[in-house]
Design a protein that fits this description.
CATH class: Alpha Beta
CATH topology: hypothetical protein yedk fold
Strand content: 35-45%
CATH architecture: Alpha-Beta Complex
Radius of gyration: 17 Å
Structural class: mainly beta
Helix content: 10-25%
Number of strands: 18
Largest sheet: 8 strands, mixed
Order of helices and strands: EEEEHEEEEEEHEEEEEEEHHE
CATH superfamily: SOS response associated peptidase-like
Length: 244
């Protein structure tokens, strides 16, 4: 993961009819079977060049026996120095291998049972109760590093969210294997005060000191699933002006 990697931008605009919970406007709906579902909040995050280097150095410090570097030859939708990665494509994750932290690429999104679209997120509050996520969240957890993520409000205004105290944001995830391919989802939780004015859900964000425990220690998983993420800094793509 070198500076030449550019920026990873992850978006789920091509994914429709997903029953995961990262989407523009989370609202309860009723499907044809009468069961309530939720629209997803926007699954879109980004990593800049400097953050990419810091992520690599961090993992090497956490585990000096890092044996495998992620493939740097993959690029999707590259333009103006940006490599865009969408759900169903590869994202960088930190996971455990042989009792050590490792870093690599996995495909973002679990295939739905009905074959229609992907599950790109799991609700932290109910992940251990859902058949789709229970085993992986209890035994196969990972961390998705990012610079920040974007979200849109009901007026379709775009906002970015980043940590005020660190260049790297660590989002909790879990992974499973489907037809020989490792795939991950990002866990989300109720939005805190910094995100709530824009959306009622947000990624479950971990502290750097919590990475090893989240990935390696099955005994503390449910504690992390109940945590409230740190307050984030919000940035607007443009500032609206008022005459009053």
């Amino acid at each position: 993961m070198e500076a030449k990697l550019g920026k990873w931008v992850v978006s789920h605009r091509l994914i429709r009819n997903s029953s995961s919970d990262m989407g523009k406007n989370s609202r309860n709906e009723t499907n044809k079977s009468g069961r309530k579902t939720e629209k997803t909040m926007c699954g879109r995050y980004y990593v800049d060049d400097e953050t990419a280097g810091e992520i690599k150095r961090l993992v090497e410090r956490l585990d000096e026996r890092l044996r495998r570097k992620p493939d740097q030859s993959s690029s999707h939708g590259s333009a103006a120095g940006i490599a865009a990665v969408f759900p169903s494509q590869n994202g960088i994750v930190i996971m455990g291998r042989d009792r050590h932290l490792d870093m690599g690429r996995m495909i973002w999104g679990f295939p739905r049972f009905d074959g229609k679209g992907l599950l790109i997120n799991a609700r932290a509050e109910t992940a251990v109760e859902r058949r789709s996520f229970r085993e992986c969240v209890l035994h196969r957890r990972c961390v998705v590093p990012a610079k920040g993520f974007w979200e849109w409000n009901k007026s379709k205004e775009k906002f970015s969210f980043e940590r005020p105290d660190s260049r790297i944001m660590f989002m909790a995830g879990c992974y499973d294997c489907f037809e020989g391919q490792d795939r991950f989802v990002i866990l989300t939780t109720e939005a805190n005060a910094s995100v709530r004015p824009v959306h009622d859900r947000m990624p479950l964000i971990l502290e750097q000191s919590e990475i090893e425990d989240w990935v390696m220690d099955n005994g503390v998983t449910e504690h992390f699933l109940r945590k409230t993420p740190i307050l984030l800094e919000k940035g607007a793509e443009y500032e609206q002006m008022s005459l009053f």
